[in-house]
Automatic annotation (TrEMBL):
Coiled coil start-end: none
Residue ranges: DNA binding: 46-65
GO MF annotations in UniProt: DNA binding
Record's keyword terms, sorted: DNA-binding, Repressor
Keyword Repressor set for record: yes
Lineage: Bacteria, Bacillati, Bacillota, Bacilli, Bacillales
Record organism: Virgibacillus profundi
InterPro entries in alphabetical order: Homeodomain-like_sf, HTH-type_Tx_Regulator, HTH_TetR, Tet_transcr_reg_TetR-rel_C_sf
Ranges where the HTH tetR-type domain occurs: 23-83
Claim: DNA-binding is one of the keywords in the record: yes
PROSITE patterns: HTH_TETR_2
Recorded superkingdom: Bacteria
Protein name according to UniProt: TetR family transcriptional regulator
Amino acid sequence: MSEQDQSIYKQMIDTLGESENMTPKQVKILEAAIEIISEKGYYNTSTSEIAKRAGVAEGTIFRHYRTKKDLLASIITPVITKFSAPFFAEKFVDQVFRKPHKNFEDFLYAFIKNRFEFAKANVPLVKILLQELAFHPEIQASYKKVFAEKIYPAINNVLDYYKEKGEIKDQPNLSIIRLLAPTVLGFLITRFLLQPDLEWDDDREIRRTVDFIMKGIGKVGE
């Protein structure tokens, strides 16, 4: 894989390894932990499996982390909270919200396409986020902070703009976001977690998702 094609989570692993002065073995443990936890979930992953995939002795893990929980807290959680949330939020806003769009439907397509490409490039990381978010308050707190500071203001401005143009219904922005979020998230969960092996026509499904949302909040035909 070329440097340009490296997924974000691989880049974050390298960055974390450098910032925390990790040894090559620790970096391998980190990579193996992300891969296996994304495949099986945190509670179904054993340290022996992580050690085997990392090519190290299980005792090596326990020299650095007393328990599997420490491994998650000391490695996986920092990857998510310190790097993933701020990194994708900045890029997300820059790539979607700061670019011109012909109309709200065009914006919505760009919004979903961007999150789709992020998920596709970072399936292991996305799986961990979705699997562990409900069980780890520190991850929840990080994402709430990023959403409040980075994502919500950008979405709020876009919704206000298109409401003023008369392209979407004059509903409270929080209500619109509440309807948007589960629809987009449901598509991504089905595509990458529940039924990843189906023969998907990804662009068609994205456009169907856009059409479904527009029928709910768009003012077309009113």
